[in-house]
Amino acid sequence: MRSGPIAAVTLWWGGRSALQATILALVLFGGFLLVSNTLANMERFGITPGFAFLEHPAGFEIGEAPIDYRPQDSYALALLAGLLNTVKVAAVGCLAATVLGVLLGVARLSGNALLSGLVQGYVELIRSTPLLLQLFFWSATFQALPAPRQALNPLPGVFLCNRGIQLPAFADGRAAGWVLAAAVLGTVLALAGTALHRRAGRRGGLPGMTVAAVACGLPVSLLLASGVPLRIEVPELSGFNFSGGTTVSPEFSALLVGLVVNAAAMIAEIVRSGLQAVPAGQWEAARALGLTRGRTMRLVVLPQAMRVIVPLLTSSYLNLTKNSSLAVAIGFPDLVSVINTSANQTGQVLETMAIMMGAYLTVNLAVSAAMNLYNHRLAIRGWR
Predict the structure, then answer these.
(1) How far apart are CA 255 and CA 264, in angstroms?
(2) Contact 311, 384 (CB under 8 A)
(3) What spatial distance separates the first Cα and last Cα of the chain, rounded to whole Å?
(4) How far, in Å, CA of 98 to CA of 263, rounded?
(5) How far is residue 53's CA from residue 67's CA, in Å, rounded to a whole number?
(6) In whole angstroms, what is the distance from residue 53 CA to residue 47 CA?
(7) What would you measure as the largest C-alpha separation in the chain, in angstroms?
(8) Which end of the chain has less neighbouring CB within 10 Å, N or C?
(9) How many CB atoms are closer than 10 A to CB 142?
(10) Are 156 and 166 in contact (CB under 8 A)?
(11) CA 266 from chain center: how many Å?
């Protein structure tokens, strides 16, 4: 067989190089016609192609923004606010759906026929109805909650009304940032301490209390050194509305609950199939060793089931992230909603669509990369 660049090109083209070259030329010609016609139409309507519009004032309100945004700010800041809203819903949704889905998946295999049947009915109901219909249902449910004066009080300091969910929060807004930084620092220290403890364990061991003291002590010291008061403020009824605490809007609540309930049904089936993929002999061997059902699940079955669960879980996370684009149907200002408003005002449809595609592609590739890294670590540990 010949080698070299020509042989490599010939191998890449295959045996029908003339046909492939013709098809490629036709595709390129079609793309050229599409781009030239689009530019001509944009010129006819007085629209200048490009992304210069991002620096112009947006001029529209965003009802719920995680950053300090005002209508006189630029389109770039408006798009960033929409993107952060999408990321917030996706991150919280993936976490909550995982917890609920794992619980439902384990309950689906319960020996209690009533519990298993209820979970099966829930899964079939959710999988058989459109997500958009479910979002409308949850939106109508949150909008139908009573007025603030008749708000529901399911937990101390938590109120449900048609203005949203009222929750306790730090009296000083800076405290949340410091607590988050301390939590991240504590998590990193705990993980690093655990790894050092395991390595040192082979040489005589590292006191676990030392690791815990360092992991908890430094974040607490960070909070105390910040000087920010950590007083918790509980919402109280004042006039016709609540004051104090923080409010989760009905639109965000409906979107989050709808996405979590929908994704949890899919994750429950993934967890069930993963657990059933573990041979029954593993359960019997664990029982023979005297392990309880909980320890058998945690130490024997679940680690082996992860090789089936993790790849499918990645698909569920990607679907939840993409499904968050349905937020525009119930009035939550996510990225799609802000993109639509920006495109209508500026006429830069192609540019805004390109931004939206790039944003969703970036977020989903980041989720895939994180899950692939986790799957790779499982493979290193011998769980696959």
Answers:
(1) 14
(2) no
(3) 39
(4) 8
(5) 21
(6) 10
(7) 87
(8) N
(9) 22
(10) no
(11) 15
pLDDT at 5 over 80: no
Among 187, 185, 192, smallest CA distance to 206 is for 192
| Structural element, H or E, at residue 152 | strand 152-155
204: region left, alpha or beta (phi > 0 left; psi from -120 to 50 alpha): left
Q: Can you tell me the distance from the alpha carbon of 53 to that of 351, in angstroms, rounded to the nearest whole number?
A: 10
- Per-residue pLDDT, 199: 66
Residue of 67, 106, 130, 74 lying closest to 262 (CA atoms): 130
Tokens of residue 170, six digits: 């730090």
DSSP summary character for residue 278: S
Phi and psi at residue 21, in whole multiples of 5°? -65, -40
Listed in sequence order, the residues at least 6 apart from 75 whose beta carbon sits closer than 8 Å to its beta carbon are: 53, 54, 55, 56, 57, 58, 342, 346
- Name the nearest CA neighbour of 236 among 304, 157, 309: 157
Please state, in angstroms and rounded to a whole number, the distance separating the CA atoms of residues 16 and 192.
56
| DSSP-assigned beta bridge partners for residue 243 | 236
H helices of 45-172, where? 75-108, 113-127, 131-143
Residues in the chain: 384
Q: What is the Cα–Cα distance from 294 to 235, expressed in whole angstroms?
A: 39
Whether 278 and 267 have beta carbons less than 8 Å apart is answered as no
Least confident of 66-70, 204-208, 217-221: 204-208
132's tokens: 């958009």
Helix (H), strand (E) counts: the chain: 13, 8
User: Residue 18 half-sphere exposure, CB side, CA atoms within 13 Å?
Assistant: 0
Partners of 160 in beta bridges = 152, 165
